[in-house]
Model the fold of this input.
Amino acid sequence: MAVAHVSSLENFRSSRRLAELLRGHDDIGSAAQTTRAALERRPEFASRIAIWDVAVRGLFEANLGEAVVLSFLRLSEHWPAQRSAHDLLAIGRAVTDIGRSAGSRIAHAALTELSKVLPRLAGANEVTTVLAALCQLADMGPESVGLAINRLEQLLGHAGAEGFSAWVSAGLRASGGRAAQRRAYFGLDDALSARLLALGRTGDDFARLEKRLAATMVALWNRKPRFRKLAIAPTSVPRRTSLAVGLIGLPETFPGFEGARADAIYLAAVAHAGAHLVHSTVRFPVGRLKALQLALVSLIEDARVETLALREMPGLRWLWLPFHTAVPSGQATAAGLMTRLARALIDPDYQDGDAWVAKGRTLFAAASERWTDPAISREIGGLLGNDIGQMRLQFNAKSYVVEPAYRDDNLALWDFGDAPDAPDAPTETIELAVDSVRIERREEAGGRSTDETARPDETLRARASVTTLLDGIPVATYPEWDYAANTERIDWTTILEADAVASAKPLELPAESEALRSITRLTRDASIGRRLRQKGQREGDALDIDAAVARTIERRAGHVSEPRVYQRDAPGPRDLAFLLLLDLSHSTADRDRAGRTVLDVERKAAAIMAAAVETARDAIAVHGFNSDGRERVRYLRIKGFDEPMDAVVRSRLAGLGSSHSTRLGAALRHAGSYLVQRRAFRKVLLVLTDGEPSDIDVPDPQYLTEDARRAAQQLRRRGMDIFAFGIGGGHYPQLGRIFGERYALRVPRIDVLPQRVMQLYTELKK
Amino acid sequence: MTNPALLLDQYRILDEPYYRPLRDEVELFGAAYASRMPVMLKGPTGCGKTRFIEYMAWRLGRPLITVACHEDMTAADLVGRWLLDAEGTVWSDGPLTTAVRLGAICYLDEIVEARQDTTVVIHPLTDDRRVLPLEKRGELIHAHSDFQLVISYNPGYQSAIKDLKESTKQRFAALDFDYPDRSAEVEVVSREAGIEPEIADLLVKIASHSRNLKGQGLDEGASTRMLVNAGRLIGYGISLDKACETTIVVPLTDDADTRNTLRDVISACA
Done:
């Protein structure tokens, strides 16, 4: 039993060290010994007791006060038997770290809150995930960790451990090292924060499903509305689908519906919206109707269009029914009865003893001859509304929300006329209508392009007018890859696009430069394009039967002829599109030993490449970028694909300057969007840069590298060829990581450019 | 098969093919054949063009020589070529030449798939000359009086590369085909697949929804032929969703989103 002997010796020594440390602190000392003795008797701790000692010593030595140590001892003593001992020790270490960064009060709060949320964190590694997020937050934003800890239970209940961790790292990144922004984010005062928290778990369901939903709408209903993403507003009333002329707004996520259920509710919502588009042919005047009546008429109209849809497509019932979960019990409130009625009208098997629900059912069934007439919704809804009024049931227009969740807000059914201004309109109605309008407005004011399909929309244009002169027009938002969290951050970067400013004097390009001559030759002779079949060749991959027969005949006839009996695939017409993307960040102003800046080399290379490629009659565009945080990725158009390489373009090249940072991934995605639109057999994106991506709001240098790498991979998958020329003397280890070693070529001086261009063409030919 | 009559017999259609007329195409084609006018059958894939020409060949009592055109097809594949045997060279007629010599209906299926220079060989046959020059053989064949040329053409491929030359197009009378209307398509599917009209009706409903997706993820919606295939599987006891998956969803597209949309359509209709 040598092992046991050794471990018990260790145990003895460890215990003695702890006791020595705690000497003089009798309260803690005796409590520690008691807890220790209790833990020693538990098998899962027996081999770890020395580590536990270290954890307690750490807490004590961090000088966080007796309360923290005692609190940890209490947690240890009551540590549930089924929980891993490892988690307890991790909590000890994490609290020590948090205490060191944020102080003992926060450390104590952390212990208290952690012990509360413990039952929630039952999954493998959930405790460690949460602890790691808290430690990261304590380290990078000590003033904010308390805010997160105080709400820990709520946050975890909402987002889960993984979601919480993603939310924390997103917040650290979004606030870019500014404490005030961090406080707003972690105090949930920030709209982005609430949104990310809601998204944390499910991701952006709308973005994921949009294409499928649009196709489903076309397939089922043969209607082609545009889809618009509605951001989740931090209101108490959940978001519903919203219809407008030619437009369907869908919440970016339906909270509470995840995975397969998320797919189902979006499909149900789109099927329902389509039923409205096809069957809700008139708009009801609001007139003097009260909110309750509006809601009831809408409810009947919902049932009417669904019934009509089910006649044509009975399978839709199985899409909609699962969301009707109302049961014939509970307190009879107006809203409760209405969800029961909604179910009763669509679910023939549903039993409900309530007289009002039964009356609604009877009225609706009795109108079956006239189901195609929207007027019945108005009639039945009106009758049922009167009954509810007589039953004296409360109806709160402010908190009312259409149920089940797949149904839309039904505002599109109503003709509000000038209701909000009309003096005699009932106040309730106005509130309902105005509230909904208010939500729309706020969204537009605060929203960074939540509407991707309708870009550039009015909001963008309005905001653009302020920034146009300096930065360009916001034209697009792109996601960014967070390698640490393994997620895409939706709409994370905003591209501001503008034409490059021309300088008075065009860039001078020695017409007879050796580099230009050799690159022109190279590009002209390079054969990259479709392959064509050539027959009757001297050599080739396959026998050309016709030629072979003809040659044999000639030979037998005694003629001597050339043995052209093969066919082969040969290059066809040129069909290549190039996009040069120039890095215009501040570091491109660095000079080499000869006094040339990186930017000088870049623009000269761009001028030569553009001139040469144009001579070869391929299309080439030259764009540039730099960035100033994720909201301002500036993208300059220097030469369009169809612009000639003339003095104007050379003036723009001459007018380029170096400033700000390098958010490469966003620029790559935007450049890719230009290339995608080109019709060409090969599409080549060539980045001229001086090194690694960086930006002011990103502390982790690896983050943007990994994002750019992902962007490059995604573009390759879409059929583009991507290369990078590392300009200047540096080594640029990141370039290989981002683009792949074979595609990242070093161009220290302009005179090696021809060689590199040749390498590029060699790769293209493969 | 040196005997021309025997050679032709293999191209004869003996049993009446099932064909349900859409409009007056049978009458029109009959008149066109009477004057030996070249005919072009236009319409989406799987709507019954080939079945129609088989039916007409049977009705007119003419042999039918069908050539499925493909992009590697050369003029020699149509008109014929010299081959070698022990004696020396022998000429072998291509399918078009056979039809021209012996008086069959020659049906060039999906003509746009063939290279444009290939299709030019049919030009002398499609005007009042009605001749086929075999330049490799130094022969000029005057078409048999029963010969007729029919091509099919799917306008769904709207690409500049895959369109007929104007000079080819204008030589033909054209019959426009489309999927039959609902009741007719139900009749066709139910008869061809041997299934109950109710199931056929469901399949037709699914197809009409899928045709909405043309140009929105699909190049073509589900064809009548696909529905017949689905119906046949159902006839063998396969469930509706599996049959549709196998004969409609998977063949139509490889795009995961579009496949899901089609599945949504199927479950919405069922």
